[in-house]
Design a protein that fits this description.
With 166 residues, the chain is mainly α. The chain has helices spanning 24-65, 67-70, 80-83, 95-98, 105-113, 115-119, 131-134, 143-162; strands spanning 2-6, 16-20. The protein has one domain (38-162). It contains eight helices and two strands; from the N terminus they run ββαααααααα. A two-stranded antiparallel ribbon has the order 1-2. The radius of gyration is 29 Å and the shape is elongated.
């Protein structure tokens, strides 16, 4: 529905303009757009909160299990370097740089887990704990404890990714 308005009652000016009255259909589309925008915003907030929580969990695990060797900022300068002769932990902040600018998440996951190396008989040269097994210690090896260990490793990987120098 289109209406014409003429003049201005307050100023006495004479002009005309058109406006469209809102129809039930246009109100419906406006409400749908607002609903979609609200849902999308909520999803993004939920997603970013989930990432922040995972990074916080990864930071806590890092500070508990990794900082002694890799140091508080991941530079490979933890306290253990002074005590254990020949220990040279990886500078975790340079992993992306050494991999052509792409964070090697799968390789980091496997290095933390360590169980692939055991099955490949490379344990003799490994100086890092087998965190995949260690995260399950004290619990029977079940699908649930395996999932918990995998989740903890993924959180560590996300945290280490956040340590990368850009």
């Amino acid at each position: 529905m289109t209406r014409k308005l003429s003049g201005n009652a307050l100023s006495g000016a004479s002009h005309s303009c058109e406006y469209r009255a809102a129809t039930p259909r246009s109100r419906h589309h406006t409400m749908m757009r607002k609903t979609v925008c609200c849902l999308a915003t909520g999803f993004l907030l939920w997603l970013s909160a989930g990432i922040a929580i995972a990074q916080m969990a990864g930071k806590e695990a890092y500070e508990k299990d990794c900082v002694v060797c890799h140091g508080p900022k991941g530079k490979g300068d933890g306290e253990a370097v002074r005590v254990l002769v020949g220990l040279a932990p990886t500078d975790l902040t340079q992993l992306s740089k050494k991999n052509g600018g792409k964070f090697p998440a799968d390789a980091v996951y496997r290095a933390i887990d360590g169980r692939d190396e055991v099955s490949a008989h490379h344990l003799g040269t490994r100086r890092m704990p087998l965190w995949g097994l260690d995260f399950q210690l004290g619990s029977p090896c079940t699908a649930e404890t395996e999932a918990q260990a995998c989740q903890r490793i993924k959180e560590l990987v996300r945290y280490i990714e956040a340590l990368q120098q850009r």
